[in-house]
Amino acid sequence: MLKAADLERRAAAIAHSELNLEEMCRSFDQLMRTGVPYLAAAWSTHDPATGLFTSCTLSGIEEDRSREANLFRCEFSEGEPASCLSLIGQRETVSILSEVTGGELGRTARFREIFQHFGVTDELRVVLWADDRAWGTVSMYRVDGDTFTQEHADFAASVAPFAARGLQLALLRMAASRPEAIDDPPGILQAEVGGQVTPLTAPAQRWLELAGSKLVTAANVTAAAIREHQDWTGAASRLVLHDGRILSLHASNMTTEDGAVAVIVDAARPVEIGAMLVDAYGLTRRQRMVLGLLLLGRSMSEIALQLGISEHTANDHRKAIYQKIGVSSRSELAALLQAEHYDPRSYRGVPPSPYGGFLLE
Predict the structure, then answer these.
(1) Domain 275-347 falls in which CATH fold?
(2) Confidence band of 254 (pLDDT split at 50, 70, 90)
Protein backbone atom coordinates (compact mmCIF):
# COMPACT_ATOMS: atom_id res chain seq x y z
CA MET A 1 0.00 0.00 0.00
CA LEU A 2 1.27 3.50 -0.84
CA LYS A 3 2.50 5.80 1.89
CA ALA A 4 0.22 8.76 2.61
CA ALA A 5 2.51 11.35 1.00
CA ASP A 6 3.00 9.25 -2.14
CA LEU A 7 -0.73 8.60 -2.36
CA GLU A 8 -1.52 12.31 -2.16
CA ARG A 9 1.04 13.17 -4.83
CA ARG A 10 -0.28 10.55 -7.22
CA ALA A 11 -3.92 11.47 -6.55
CA ALA A 12 -3.21 15.18 -7.04
CA ALA A 13 -1.37 14.49 -10.31
CA ILE A 14 -4.44 12.67 -11.66
CA ALA A 15 -6.87 15.36 -10.45
CA HIS A 16 -4.86 18.12 -12.13
CA SER A 17 -4.29 16.30 -15.41
CA GLU A 18 -6.02 17.02 -18.71
CA LEU A 19 -7.97 13.76 -18.65
CA ASN A 20 -11.58 13.67 -19.77
CA LEU A 21 -14.28 12.35 -17.47
CA GLU A 22 -14.00 8.65 -18.34
CA GLU A 23 -10.20 8.74 -18.34
CA MET A 24 -10.28 10.49 -14.96
CA CYS A 25 -12.47 7.75 -13.48
CA ARG A 26 -10.30 4.97 -14.89
CA SER A 27 -7.10 6.56 -13.60
CA PHE A 28 -8.52 6.94 -10.11
CA ASP A 29 -9.79 3.36 -10.32
CA GLN A 30 -6.23 2.15 -10.94
CA LEU A 31 -5.00 4.19 -8.00
CA MET A 32 -7.79 2.95 -5.72
CA ARG A 33 -6.89 -0.66 -6.50
CA THR A 34 -3.40 -0.16 -5.02
CA GLY A 35 -4.98 0.01 -1.57
CA VAL A 36 -8.43 -1.56 -1.84
CA PRO A 37 -8.98 -5.12 -3.16
CA TYR A 38 -12.11 -5.40 -5.33
CA LEU A 39 -13.26 -7.15 -8.47
CA ALA A 40 -15.59 -4.53 -9.94
CA ALA A 41 -16.49 -0.90 -9.39
CA ALA A 42 -18.89 1.75 -10.64
CA TRP A 43 -17.62 5.34 -10.78
CA SER A 44 -20.65 7.58 -11.09
CA THR A 45 -21.09 11.31 -11.45
CA HIS A 46 -24.06 12.86 -9.68
CA ASP A 47 -25.98 16.04 -10.31
CA PRO A 48 -24.68 18.26 -7.48
CA ALA A 49 -28.12 19.92 -7.34
CA THR A 50 -30.16 16.73 -6.90
CA GLY A 51 -27.83 13.83 -6.13
CA LEU A 52 -29.22 11.88 -9.10
CA PHE A 53 -26.92 9.90 -11.42
CA THR A 54 -25.63 11.64 -14.57
CA SER A 55 -22.99 9.18 -15.87
CA CYS A 56 -21.27 5.94 -14.94
CA THR A 57 -17.89 4.40 -15.76
CA LEU A 58 -17.60 0.70 -14.97
CA SER A 59 -14.46 -1.20 -14.04
CA GLY A 60 -14.22 -4.99 -14.06
CA ILE A 61 -17.76 -5.53 -15.35
CA GLU A 62 -19.52 -5.04 -18.68
CA GLU A 63 -22.24 -2.45 -19.16
CA ASP A 64 -25.79 -3.82 -18.93
CA ARG A 65 -28.53 -1.19 -19.05
CA SER A 66 -31.19 -3.62 -17.92
CA ARG A 67 -29.16 -4.44 -14.82
CA GLU A 68 -28.46 -0.75 -14.28
CA ALA A 69 -32.17 0.11 -14.46
CA ASN A 70 -32.88 -2.63 -11.92
CA LEU A 71 -30.13 -1.28 -9.67
CA PHE A 72 -31.61 2.22 -9.81
CA ARG A 73 -35.01 0.80 -8.89
CA CYS A 74 -33.41 -0.81 -5.84
CA GLU A 75 -31.40 2.32 -5.05
CA PHE A 76 -34.53 4.45 -4.88
CA SER A 77 -36.68 1.96 -2.97
CA GLU A 78 -37.93 3.23 0.39
CA GLY A 79 -35.45 2.62 3.22
CA GLU A 80 -32.68 1.04 1.10
CA PRO A 81 -29.63 0.87 3.42
CA ALA A 82 -26.59 2.93 2.37
CA SER A 83 -28.11 4.04 -0.92
CA CYS A 84 -26.14 6.75 -2.68
CA LEU A 85 -28.86 9.34 -2.09
CA SER A 86 -29.11 8.47 1.60
CA LEU A 87 -25.33 8.78 2.03
CA ILE A 88 -25.41 12.16 0.29
CA GLY A 89 -28.39 13.24 2.39
CA GLN A 90 -26.62 12.22 5.59
CA ARG A 91 -23.40 13.89 4.38
CA GLU A 92 -21.48 10.63 4.76
CA THR A 93 -18.23 9.88 2.95
CA VAL A 94 -17.63 6.12 3.37
CA SER A 95 -19.93 3.16 3.92
CA ILE A 96 -19.17 -0.58 4.21
CA LEU A 97 -22.36 -2.49 3.49
CA SER A 98 -21.48 -5.49 5.69
CA GLU A 99 -21.14 -3.12 8.65
CA VAL A 100 -24.29 -1.14 7.88
CA THR A 101 -26.36 -4.34 7.65
CA GLY A 102 -24.65 -6.22 10.48
CA GLY A 103 -23.44 -8.80 7.98
CA GLU A 104 -26.94 -9.34 6.58
CA LEU A 105 -26.54 -8.07 3.02
CA GLY A 106 -29.93 -9.58 2.21
CA ARG A 107 -31.51 -6.64 4.00
CA THR A 108 -30.82 -4.61 0.86
CA ALA A 109 -32.88 -4.87 -2.30
CA ARG A 110 -29.80 -4.49 -4.49
CA PHE A 111 -28.18 -7.56 -2.92
CA ARG A 112 -31.31 -9.72 -3.13
CA GLU A 113 -32.12 -8.83 -6.71
CA ILE A 114 -28.67 -8.29 -8.26
CA PHE A 115 -25.51 -8.78 -6.23
CA GLN A 116 -26.11 -12.25 -4.82
CA HIS A 117 -26.36 -13.64 -8.36
CA PHE A 118 -22.79 -12.45 -8.98
CA GLY A 119 -21.42 -13.78 -5.71
CA VAL A 120 -20.88 -10.32 -4.21
CA THR A 121 -19.86 -10.55 -0.55
CA ASP A 122 -19.45 -6.87 0.30
CA GLU A 123 -19.75 -3.33 -1.02
CA LEU A 124 -17.66 -0.27 -0.18
CA ARG A 125 -19.15 3.08 -1.16
CA VAL A 126 -17.46 6.45 -1.15
CA VAL A 127 -19.09 9.82 -1.80
CA LEU A 128 -16.84 12.26 -3.67
CA TRP A 129 -17.29 15.65 -1.99
CA ALA A 130 -15.82 18.97 -3.15
CA ASP A 131 -16.97 22.43 -2.06
CA ASP A 132 -19.63 20.76 0.10
CA ARG A 133 -21.22 19.19 -2.99
CA ALA A 134 -21.40 15.52 -3.96
CA TRP A 135 -19.86 15.31 -7.44
CA GLY A 136 -19.89 11.54 -7.62
CA THR A 137 -19.68 8.19 -5.90
CA VAL A 138 -17.64 5.04 -6.32
CA SER A 139 -19.11 1.66 -5.39
CA MET A 140 -16.61 -1.21 -5.08
CA TYR A 141 -17.51 -4.91 -4.84
CA ARG A 142 -15.75 -7.98 -3.43
CA VAL A 143 -16.68 -11.48 -4.51
CA ASP A 144 -13.99 -13.49 -2.77
CA GLY A 145 -15.93 -14.21 0.42
CA ASP A 146 -14.09 -11.49 2.33
CA THR A 147 -15.38 -8.13 3.51
CA PHE A 148 -13.93 -4.65 3.35
CA THR A 149 -12.01 -3.41 6.38
CA GLN A 150 -11.61 -0.04 8.06
CA GLU A 151 -8.15 0.15 6.52
CA HIS A 152 -9.72 -0.15 3.08
CA ALA A 153 -12.28 2.51 3.98
CA ASP A 154 -9.57 4.87 5.23
CA PHE A 155 -7.55 4.44 2.03
CA ALA A 156 -10.63 5.14 -0.10
CA ALA A 157 -11.47 8.20 1.99
CA SER A 158 -7.95 9.53 1.37
CA VAL A 159 -8.42 9.27 -2.39
CA ALA A 160 -11.95 10.70 -2.37
CA PRO A 161 -11.29 14.48 -2.17
CA PHE A 162 -8.80 14.30 -5.04
CA ALA A 163 -11.21 12.24 -7.15
CA ALA A 164 -14.00 14.72 -6.41
CA ARG A 165 -11.87 17.64 -7.52
CA GLY A 166 -10.79 15.74 -10.61
CA LEU A 167 -14.40 15.09 -11.61
CA GLN A 168 -15.34 18.72 -10.99
CA LEU A 169 -12.46 19.98 -13.14
CA ALA A 170 -13.22 17.46 -15.90
CA LEU A 171 -16.83 18.70 -16.00
CA LEU A 172 -15.68 22.32 -16.14
CA ARG A 173 -13.29 21.54 -19.00
CA MET A 174 -16.11 19.74 -20.79
CA ALA A 175 -18.32 22.80 -20.42
CA ALA A 176 -15.47 25.01 -21.65
CA SER A 177 -15.13 22.84 -24.76
CA ARG A 178 -18.82 23.39 -25.60
CA PRO A 179 -19.39 27.15 -25.20
CA GLU A 180 -22.56 26.93 -27.28
CA ALA A 181 -24.16 24.67 -24.66
CA ILE A 182 -24.19 27.16 -21.78
CA ASP A 183 -24.69 30.85 -21.07
CA ASP A 184 -21.50 32.68 -20.04
CA PRO A 185 -19.37 29.56 -20.60
CA PRO A 186 -16.13 28.98 -18.73
CA GLY A 187 -12.86 29.76 -20.46
CA ILE A 188 -9.33 28.44 -20.13
CA LEU A 189 -6.27 30.60 -19.52
CA GLN A 190 -2.64 29.52 -19.52
CA ALA A 191 -0.50 31.02 -16.77
CA GLU A 192 3.25 30.89 -17.41
CA VAL A 193 5.92 30.80 -14.70
CA GLY A 194 7.08 34.23 -15.83
CA GLY A 195 3.64 35.74 -15.23
CA GLN A 196 2.31 35.85 -18.80
CA VAL A 197 -1.35 34.85 -19.03
CA THR A 198 -2.73 33.76 -22.40
CA PRO A 199 -6.38 33.00 -23.26
CA LEU A 200 -6.70 29.56 -24.86
CA THR A 201 -10.41 29.85 -25.69
CA ALA A 202 -12.73 32.59 -26.92
CA PRO A 203 -14.68 32.78 -23.62
CA ALA A 204 -11.37 33.20 -21.77
CA GLN A 205 -10.49 36.12 -24.07
CA ARG A 206 -13.86 37.70 -23.24
CA TRP A 207 -13.32 37.36 -19.49
CA LEU A 208 -9.81 38.78 -19.86
CA GLU A 209 -11.16 41.82 -21.73
CA LEU A 210 -13.76 42.38 -19.00
CA ALA A 211 -11.51 41.88 -15.98
CA GLY A 212 -8.15 43.04 -17.32
CA SER A 213 -5.08 43.04 -15.09
CA LYS A 214 -7.04 41.87 -12.03
CA LEU A 215 -7.78 38.57 -13.78
CA VAL A 216 -4.13 38.24 -14.82
CA THR A 217 -3.06 38.65 -11.18
CA ALA A 218 -5.70 36.23 -9.89
CA ALA A 219 -4.76 33.60 -12.50
CA ASN A 220 -1.07 33.89 -11.60
CA VAL A 221 -1.79 33.58 -7.86
CA THR A 222 -3.96 30.50 -8.44
CA ALA A 223 -1.33 28.94 -10.71
CA ALA A 224 1.48 29.68 -8.24
CA ALA A 225 -0.46 27.97 -5.44
CA ILE A 226 -0.78 24.69 -7.32
CA ARG A 227 2.85 24.81 -8.48
CA GLU A 228 4.00 25.21 -4.89
CA HIS A 229 1.58 22.67 -3.42
CA GLN A 230 1.18 19.92 -5.99
CA ASP A 231 -0.30 17.57 -3.38
CA TRP A 232 -3.27 19.88 -2.73
CA THR A 233 -6.68 18.69 -3.88
CA GLY A 234 -6.95 21.94 -5.82
CA ALA A 235 -6.29 25.67 -5.91
CA ALA A 236 -9.10 28.16 -6.49
CA SER A 237 -9.85 31.84 -6.03
CA ARG A 238 -12.54 34.41 -6.73
CA LEU A 239 -12.50 37.84 -8.34
CA VAL A 240 -15.20 40.53 -8.10
CA LEU A 241 -15.70 42.50 -11.33
CA HIS A 242 -16.53 46.20 -11.49
CA ASP A 243 -20.17 45.39 -12.29
CA GLY A 244 -20.53 43.18 -9.20
CA ARG A 245 -20.26 39.85 -10.98
CA ILE A 246 -17.95 37.27 -9.42
CA LEU A 247 -15.50 35.09 -11.32
CA SER A 248 -14.30 31.71 -10.05
CA LEU A 249 -10.82 30.48 -10.95
CA HIS A 250 -9.65 26.86 -10.73
CA ALA A 251 -6.13 25.60 -11.38
CA SER A 252 -6.86 22.75 -13.77
CA ASN A 253 -3.58 21.14 -14.78
CA MET A 254 0.12 21.79 -14.98
CA THR A 255 2.54 21.09 -17.80
CA THR A 256 5.49 19.66 -15.89
CA GLU A 257 8.06 20.56 -18.57
CA ASP A 258 7.68 24.34 -18.27
CA GLY A 259 5.44 24.85 -15.26
CA ALA A 260 2.59 26.42 -17.24
CA VAL A 261 -0.78 25.98 -15.54
CA ALA A 262 -4.18 25.86 -17.21
CA VAL A 263 -6.63 27.97 -15.18
CA ILE A 264 -10.38 27.67 -15.72
CA VAL A 265 -12.19 31.00 -15.31
CA ASP A 266 -15.92 31.00 -14.90
CA ALA A 267 -18.81 33.19 -13.79
CA ALA A 268 -19.64 32.10 -10.24
CA ARG A 269 -23.16 30.75 -10.22
CA PRO A 270 -25.29 28.59 -7.97
CA VAL A 271 -25.64 24.88 -8.55
CA GLU A 272 -29.36 24.44 -9.19
CA ILE A 273 -32.07 22.25 -10.65
CA GLY A 274 -31.67 22.10 -14.42
CA ALA A 275 -34.06 23.87 -16.77
CA MET A 276 -35.12 20.45 -18.12
CA LEU A 277 -37.08 19.79 -14.92
CA VAL A 278 -38.34 23.34 -14.49
CA ASP A 279 -39.72 23.36 -18.04
CA ALA A 280 -41.12 19.82 -17.86
CA TYR A 281 -43.21 20.44 -14.75
CA GLY A 282 -43.71 24.20 -14.70
CA LEU A 283 -41.92 24.64 -11.40
CA THR A 284 -41.75 28.05 -9.77
CA ARG A 285 -38.42 29.47 -8.62
CA ARG A 286 -39.16 28.50 -5.01
CA GLN A 287 -40.35 25.01 -5.99
CA ARG A 288 -37.12 24.57 -7.95
CA MET A 289 -35.14 25.23 -4.78
CA VAL A 290 -37.31 23.00 -2.60
CA LEU A 291 -37.11 20.14 -5.12
CA GLY A 292 -33.32 20.10 -5.03
CA LEU A 293 -33.23 20.07 -1.23
CA LEU A 294 -35.85 17.30 -1.09
CA LEU A 295 -33.77 15.10 -3.38
CA LEU A 296 -30.65 15.83 -1.35
CA GLY A 297 -32.39 14.42 1.71
CA ARG A 298 -32.94 17.59 3.69
CA SER A 299 -35.70 17.48 6.32
CA MET A 300 -38.61 19.91 6.05
CA SER A 301 -37.26 21.89 9.00
CA GLU A 302 -33.83 22.11 7.32
CA ILE A 303 -35.43 23.23 4.06
CA ALA A 304 -37.47 25.89 5.86
CA LEU A 305 -34.40 27.17 7.71
CA GLN A 306 -32.20 27.26 4.59
CA LEU A 307 -34.81 29.10 2.50
CA GLY A 308 -35.97 31.42 5.28
CA ILE A 309 -39.58 30.26 5.17
CA SER A 310 -41.90 28.54 7.63
CA GLU A 311 -42.05 24.77 7.77
CA HIS A 312 -45.74 25.00 6.87
CA THR A 313 -44.86 26.91 3.67
CA ALA A 314 -42.10 24.42 2.88
CA ASN A 315 -44.60 21.58 3.17
CA ASP A 316 -47.02 23.42 0.87
CA HIS A 317 -44.25 23.65 -1.74
CA ARG A 318 -43.49 19.94 -1.30
CA LYS A 319 -47.14 19.00 -1.83
CA ALA A 320 -47.34 21.21 -4.93
CA ILE A 321 -44.19 19.60 -6.36
CA TYR A 322 -45.53 16.08 -5.74
CA GLN A 323 -48.80 17.02 -7.41
CA LYS A 324 -47.14 18.54 -10.48
CA ILE A 325 -44.81 15.57 -10.96
CA GLY A 326 -47.37 12.92 -9.97
CA VAL A 327 -45.64 11.20 -7.04
CA SER A 328 -46.39 10.70 -3.36
CA SER A 329 -42.94 10.26 -1.74
CA ARG A 330 -39.30 11.26 -2.08
CA SER A 331 -38.30 7.78 -3.22
CA GLU A 332 -40.92 7.87 -6.00
CA LEU A 333 -39.79 11.37 -6.90
CA ALA A 334 -36.14 10.35 -7.26
CA ALA A 335 -36.95 7.17 -9.18
CA LEU A 336 -39.24 8.94 -11.64
CA LEU A 337 -36.87 11.83 -12.36
CA GLN A 338 -33.93 9.44 -12.78
CA ALA A 339 -35.84 7.19 -15.20
CA GLU A 340 -37.60 9.86 -17.25
CA HIS A 341 -35.12 12.73 -17.38
CA TYR A 342 -31.63 11.62 -16.31
CA ASP A 343 -31.24 8.11 -17.78
CA PRO A 344 -32.28 9.05 -21.35
CA ARG A 345 -29.73 11.88 -21.46
CA SER A 346 -27.02 9.78 -19.85
CA TYR A 347 -27.60 6.93 -22.32
CA ARG A 348 -27.42 9.40 -25.24
CA GLY A 349 -24.05 10.55 -23.95
CA VAL A 350 -25.17 14.09 -23.08
CA PRO A 351 -22.37 15.58 -20.93
CA PRO A 352 -23.24 16.36 -17.30
CA SER A 353 -23.13 20.04 -16.40
CA PRO A 354 -20.92 21.32 -13.55
CA TYR A 355 -23.84 23.56 -12.57
CA GLY A 356 -26.56 20.93 -12.26
CA GLY A 357 -28.30 18.67 -14.78
CA PHE A 358 -26.78 18.33 -18.25
CA LEU A 359 -25.29 20.58 -20.90
CA LEU A 360 -27.66 21.56 -23.68
CA GLU A 361 -27.82 19.06 -26.54
Answers:
(1) Arc Repressor Mutant, subunit A (1.10.10)
(2) low
